[in-house]
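Hello everyone,

My group is preparing for a crystallization screen and wants a predicted model to guide construct design. The compound we'll soak is adenosine-5'-triphosphate. Before spending weeks at the bench, it would help to have a computed complex in hand. I've included the protein sequence and the ligand's SMILES below. Output in C-alpha cell form would be ideal because that's what our pipeline reads.
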Amino acid sequence: MSQSLHFVVSSSRSPNLTLPNRSYLKLSPPPSNLRFPVTFVRRPISASSSDVDSNSPSKVLVSDNGKGGVLPATSPEYVPPPSDSSSIDVDAVTEADLKENGFRSTRRTKLVCTIGPATCGFEQLEALAVGGMNVARINMCHGSREWHRRVIERVRRLNEEKGFAVAIMMDTEGSEIHMGELGGAPSAKAEDGEIWTFSVRAFDSPRPERTINVNYDGFAEDVKVGDELLVDGGMVRFDVIEKIGPDVKCRCTDPGLLLPRANLTFWRDGSLVRERNAMLPTISSKDWLDIDFGIAEGVDFIAISFVKSAEVIKHLKSYIAARSRDSDIAVIAKIESIDSLKNLEEIIQASDGAMVARGDLGAQIPLEQVPSAQQRIVQLCRHLNKPVIVASQLLESMIEYPTPTRAEVADVSEAVRQRADALMLSGESAMGLFPEKALAVLRSVSVRIEKWWREEKRHEAMELPDIASSFSDSISEQICNSAAKMGKYSFALPFPLQI
Ligand SMILES: Nc1ncnc2c1ncn2[C@@H]1O[C@H](COP(=O)(O)OP(=O)(O)OP(=O)(O)O)[C@@H](O)[C@H]1O
Ligand SMILES: CC(=O)C(=O)O
Ligand SMILES: [K+]
Ligand SMILES: [Mg+2]
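Reply:
Good plan to model first. Here are the C-alpha cells for the complex, ready for your pipeline.
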C-alpha cells in the first residue's frame, strides 16, 4: 500500500469516492465499503488479454476493496478462474454477486471519459464501462442540463442493472473568454489568410460566413490591433488587423478547425493578456446553477475550471456541505491557468484532487513548459496524498484515426509512470470516431506500465511521507506502512512462493 489513490466505486446507486488509501487513517471506523482481504488469482498462461504479458506466468491481484471485489465476466480485467488443479482457489462469481457487489478493477490508473454526442447512448456508455471507464465526465461547456441529466440517468441505470460502478464527474464551464456556438454546425474551417470577424454581437441564424460570436462584452475594448488571437490554445491563430465598433477583424495565420465554444486567449508582445480574465469570477452565475444541478443529481465529483486560488475551493466545499449535509461530492481543482500554478500548493491542499488540464494550460504558458508543469503538479499531489488526473490530447489523433501515434503512447506511458491516478479522454470519447479504441489504448498502456513499474519498484526502498497529524494516527500509519512493505516484499518472492 503506497500512496496509491483510487477512484473506488461501489455498485450502490451513487458510487463512492474513496480518497487515498492512507487517508483511511483519519477515518474511524473505516468506511463500510472498504473490505480486506484480497484475493489472489493466477492468470492462466494462455490468457489472451493484452493487459498482461502472456509469456510469463503473471499474477493478477484482485482486491476486495469494494463489496466483494469481483469483476464482471465482460470486464477486460476479469480473470477466469484457473482450471488446473495446482491453481489457487478463487471465489465463484455469479451474476447475482456481480449485481450485488460490483467490482473493483486491478488497474490502479483510473480512466475518465468525457461523454458527448459520440458516447451518450446507453449501449455506447455500456461499451465504455465494459472497456474500463471508471468515471464519466460531463462538460457543462457543452449541451443543455437536460442533455446531461439524461446521461447521468443512463450511467446510474448501467450501474444498477449491469453491476458497473461508474462515477460521474461534472466539469464547470468557468468564466474565461470563449467563442459562441457555430449556429448548430459542429465545426468551421479557418484557412490561411482568411479574414474573420470576432464580435460580441449575437448573429442571426444562419451565421454569416466567417463570423464568430464572443461571450465577453469587453472583448472589442480589450484587444488591440497587432494582438495575436489564439483559439483553443493555438489550434488556430489569428492576427488582429482592425477594430470596428463591436467587431474585431482578424487574419488567420495558422489554419485549423474552429469548434463551438472554443477558448480564446490573446497575446501581446509575446505575453498572455490576462488582466481581464483575472477579474472574472472563477465560478460564474451559470456555473452556480450548474453546481446546484450537480448537487441535485448527486454527481460524485465537481471539477472547477480555471481555479485561481484556494478560497474558491473552500467556498464551494462549504456551499456543497450546506446544501446537502450528507453529501460526499469531491471537488477537483483544474490546474489550467497561470494563477493556479502560482498558488498550486494551497489549491491542492484545499481540494479533494486535481486535474492537469493541459488544453487550456498550454494556452496560458509556453507549450514547452507544459510537461514540467505536469510533472510538478503530479508530484505535489503525490506528496500531499491527493488524487490527480492527467487530461487533454492524450490520444488526440484517435479523434480521427483508429490507432494512436507512438508519441501519444509515450505521453500516456509517461503519465502512468509519474503515477497519475487517472487519465482522461476528451474529444476522443466525446465526439471522436473511435471512443472504445481510444479507451482500450489507455487501458492497455496503463496496465503495461504499471506492471513494469512494479517490477522496477520492487527493488527500490519505499519512501512514504508522514501524513498523520496526531499520535494515534501515527501509530496506525506505522502499522499500515509496515503492512505495505510486507506486501511489497511478498511480491518479490520467487515463484512458486509468490501468490
Ligand atoms: N456534451 C457535449 N455535447 C457536444 N459536444 C461535446 C460535448 N462534450 C464535449 N463535446 C465536444 O468534444 C470536444 C472536447 O471536449 P472537452 O470536454 O475537452 O471540451 P473543451 O471544449 O475542449 O473544453 P475544456 O477545456 O472544458 O475541456 C469539445 O470541444 C466539443 O466539441
Ligand atoms: C480538460 C480541460 O479543461 C483542459 O485541458 O483545458
Ligand atoms: K469545462
Ligand atoms: Mg479547460
